[in-house]
């Protein structure tokens, strides 16, 4: 479909420094992305500009330097640490005589490698098609506009028009299938809401250690690796927290600065888990020098997807890589946990995280002593099924005194049930 040079695994990296913070990228992060994609870096070309050039993104002299580096190192791909326009890509490919990939294309390629579930593959394909649709070029000549004469009449549309039509049809098909997936997820979320099961979602910069922490908390075996975007498909597991009960823990895709809009749009169904969460665990790699910048990027993405108002608990991960790292919980003025210091790799401080989750998610509790006659044995059984009886003492007249501790929500529900079944208020049995 595309008259483009074949991609390869030996790359020349190009990084340009801009004075504006909004245009600035991180060279070390580009190297991590390239490594995560399984590509070998042969050389790095750096430059400084105030604004990008419309023709090559870099200046003419620097573009020729990149082409020389391709020939010298026998590279078969050039990767820019920036977003390129379709025209800039084509001009650079013509000059370098090899494939040119920008930062967005590189991230999309990594996502394509990582997608494992049917939904994940659909979402990646959708993002790729939206990205490719702006980069269609002439690939063959047999589809041309209609010409006069026998044997010269074409199908009436150019190859580019055919490509665009095919891509539009495929995008429409994928959107329809993803809509079904989103409805299924919505049904699951509604069921959890009806059961009043809280949802906790792990968010954070890519490679911050979310999946390692997820495995440590849930004793799962979700794929975790020291590479960017090791996790792509969302994973849900049940976690039992004392005084809270079952909690759904969601592991989500990591964020990155200047996350391509195609990905944000394509992964809308996945990111819905983050929007609907009761609590976000914002995992930070505390040993990373760029930790503050990465944290700000995560907050920007959360705002973009409409999850910036969800309560957060900060997780300072990888304290084992600090000289003076100690597991602890930081509290605010209301003695509410706001930050947990731990190491998901070694397990140090994970018990403190469970304690902090209990304090953040624990509902208002009701503690009462109930005096129940023998005729209400069914109520006693119900209290035990709710796991809310802390102790039981028999009375001289045959009644039972039950010391009960339960959430205010469960207490209100139980009061209503007792009133309907026995015609009495449960408050009348409180000693």
UniProtKB/TrEMBL annotation:
Q: Which organism is it from?
A: Pseudidiomarina sediminum
Q: Which family does it belong to?
A: Belongs to the TRAFAC class OBG-HflX-like GTPase superfamily. HflX GTPase family.
Q: Which gene encodes it?
A: hflX
For this protein, the record's PANTHER family field holds:
GTP-BINDING PROTEIN 6-RELATED, GTP-BINDING PROTEIN HFLX
Keyword GTP-binding recorded: yes
Entry-linked HAMAP family: GTPase_HflX
Provide the alphabetized UniProt keywords.
Answer: Cytoplasm, GTP-binding, Magnesium, Metal-binding, Nucleotide-binding
What interactions and quaternary structure are annotated?
Monomer. Associates with the 50S ribosomal subunit.
Endpoints of the signal sequence? none
- Detail which positions bind Mg(2+): 211, 231
Which cellular component appears as one GO term in the record?
cytoplasm
Predominant location category: cytoplasm
What is the name listed in the Swiss-Prot or TrEMBL entry for this protein?
GTPase HflX
Chain's role: GTPase that associates with the 50S ribosomal subunit and may have a role during protein synthesis or ribosome biogenesis.
Which CDD domains has this protein been placed in? HflX
Positions bound to GTP = 204-211, 229-233, 251-254, 317-320, 343-345
Q: Which SUPFAM superfamilies match?
A: EF-G C-terminal domain-like, P-loop containing nucleoside triphosphate hydrolases
Cofactor requirements of the protein: Mg(2+)
**Organism lineage:** Bacteria, Pseudomonadati, Pseudomonadota, Gammaproteobacteria, Alteromonadales
The record's subcellular location field reads: Cytoplasm
Q: Which Pfam families match?
A: GTP-bdg_M, GTP-bdg_N, HflX_C, MMR_HSR1
Q: Which residues belong to any copy of the Hflx-type G domain?
A: 198-365
Name the domain of life.
Bacteria
A GO MF term: ribosome binding
């Amino acid at each position: 479909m595309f008259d483009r040079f074949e991609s390869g695994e030996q790359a020349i990296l190009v990084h340009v420094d801009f004075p504006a913070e909004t245009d600035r990228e991180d060279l070390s992060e580009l190297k991590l992305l390239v490594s995560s994609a399984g590509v070998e870096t042969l050389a790095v070309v750096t430059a400084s500009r105030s604004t990008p050039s419309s023709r090559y993104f870099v200046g003419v002299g620097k573009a020729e330097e990149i082409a020389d580096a391709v020939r010298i190192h026998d590279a078969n791909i050039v990767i820019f640490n920036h977003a390129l326009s379709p025209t800039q890509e084509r001009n650079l490919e013509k000059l370098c005589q090899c494939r040119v990939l920008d930062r967005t294309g590189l991230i999309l390629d990594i996502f394509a490698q990582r997608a494992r579930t049917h939904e994940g593959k659909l979402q990646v394909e959708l993002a790729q098609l939206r990205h490719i649709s702006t980069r269609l070029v002439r690939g063959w000549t047999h589809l041309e506009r209609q010409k006069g004469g026998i044997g010269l009449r074409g199908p009436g549309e150019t190859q580019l028009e055919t490509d665009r039509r095919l891509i539009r049809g495929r995008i429409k098909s994928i959107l329809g299938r993803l809509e079904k997936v989103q409805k299924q997820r919505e049904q699951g979320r509604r069921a959890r809401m009806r059961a009043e099961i809280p949802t906790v979602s792990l968010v954070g910069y890519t490679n911050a250690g979310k999946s390692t922490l997820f495995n440590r908390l849930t004793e799962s075996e979700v794929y975790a690796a020291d590479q960017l975007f090791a996790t792509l498909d969302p994973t849900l597991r049940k976690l039992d927290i004392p005084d809270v009960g079952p909690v759904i823990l969601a592991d989500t895709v990591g964020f990155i600065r200047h996350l391509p809009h195609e990905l944000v749009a394509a992964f809308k169904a996945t990111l819905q888990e983050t929007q609907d969460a009761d609590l976000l665990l914002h995992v930070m790699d505390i040993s990373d020098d760029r930790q503050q910048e990465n944290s700000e990027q995560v907050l920007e993405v959360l705002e973009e997807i409409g999850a910036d108002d969800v309560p957060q608990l900060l997780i300072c991960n990888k304290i084992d890589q600090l000289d003076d790292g100690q597991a602890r919980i930081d509290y605010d003025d209301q003695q509410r946990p706001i930050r947990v210091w731990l190491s998901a790799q070694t397990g140090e401080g994970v018990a403190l995280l469970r304690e902090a989750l209990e304090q953040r998610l624990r509902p208002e509790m009701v503690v009462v002593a109930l005096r129940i006659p023998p005729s209400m044995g069914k109520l006693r059984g119900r209290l035990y099924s709710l796991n809310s009886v802390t102790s039981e003492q028999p009375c001289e007249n045959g009644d039972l005194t039950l010391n009960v501790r339960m959430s205010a929500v469960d207490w209100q529900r139980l009061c209503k049930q007792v009133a309907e079944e026995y015609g009495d208020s449960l408050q009348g049995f409180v000693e």
